[in-house]
Amino acid sequence: MIQTRILFICHGNICRSVAAEMIMRHLAEREKCQELVISSAAVSNEEEGNDIYPPMKRALIAHGIHCLHHTARKMTAKDYNKYDLLIGMDADNIWRMQRITEGDPENKMHLLLEYADQPDKEVSDPWYTRDFERAYNDIFRGCTGLMEWIQIHRINE
Q1: Which pLDDT tens digit goes with each residue over 89-124?
Q2: Which of 45, 96, 40, 49 has the alpha carbon at shortest distance from 72?
Q3: d(Cα 27, Cα 38) in Å, to the nearest integer?
Q4: Taking burial as the number of CB atoms within 10 A of a residue's CB, which of 1, 139, 144, 156 is the most buried?
Q5: Each residue of 57-76: pLDDT tens digit?
Q6: What's the distance, CA 72 to chain centroid?
Q7: Residue 51: exposed, middle, or buried by beta-carbon count in 10 A (0-12, 13-18, 19+)?
Q8: Mean pLDDT rounded to a whole number for the chain
Q9: Active site residue 73
């Protein structure tokens, strides 16, 4: 079984990227897609060691998403070779990811909403907007599109 390794990335790894990780795990379980390896990280070390931000966790739970224990961590250059896809939530994340890895020669870095047919749209940061429901909806749409993309490419391999 060929694994697909996905790393979701946001600024602090306590809201958007960890929500994407938990949602994608939920979708993978629902679709019985066991070959996915799913994790998340940050482009900064500001929240290193922290759990999911409580309002984000409440939004996930309200939608039936099981939240595993989480410890925020900063992305490293080694993550580039460890993962097949590195999915950022906004353009600033992508820029910082490329600085950490010194580029993206294999075109592994993408915005999450590219998979929801919105290639230029970013997932707004609920840390600033306080709109955790909007962030959840964007992330769910992106993860659903990503799951469909993975299933299509899995069939074609």
Answers
A1: 999 999 999 999 999 999 999 999 999 999 999 999
A2: 49
A3: 11
A4: 139
A5: 999 999 999 998 999 999 99
A6: 13
A7: middle
A8: 95
A9: no
Residue from 125, 138, 141, 143 carrying the catalytic annotation: 125
Yes or no: say if 73 and 41 are a contact pair by the CB < 8 Å rule.
yes
**Per-position DSSP letters for the chain, written without gaps between them:** ---EEEEEEESSSSSHHHHHHHHHHHHHHHTT-TTEEEEEEESSSTTTT----HHHHHHHHHTT---------B--TTHHHH-SEEEESSHHHHHHHHHHHT--TT--EEEGGGGGT-TT-----HHHH--HHHHHHHHHHHHHHHHHHHHHHHHH-
Q: Who contacts 56 (Cβ-Cβ below 8 Å, separation ≥6)?
A: 14, 15, 16, 18, 19, 126, 132, 135, 136
Place of tokens 């809201």: 15
Mean pLDDT of 75-82: 98
What residues pair up with 5 in beta bridges, in sequence order? 37
What does the alpha-carbon distance between residue 49 and residue 46 come to, in Å, rounded to a whole number? Answer: 9
Residue with tokens 């994790």: 39
- Based on the residue annotation, tell me whether 90 is a catalytic residue of this protein: no
Q: Active-site residue 10, yes or no?
A: yes
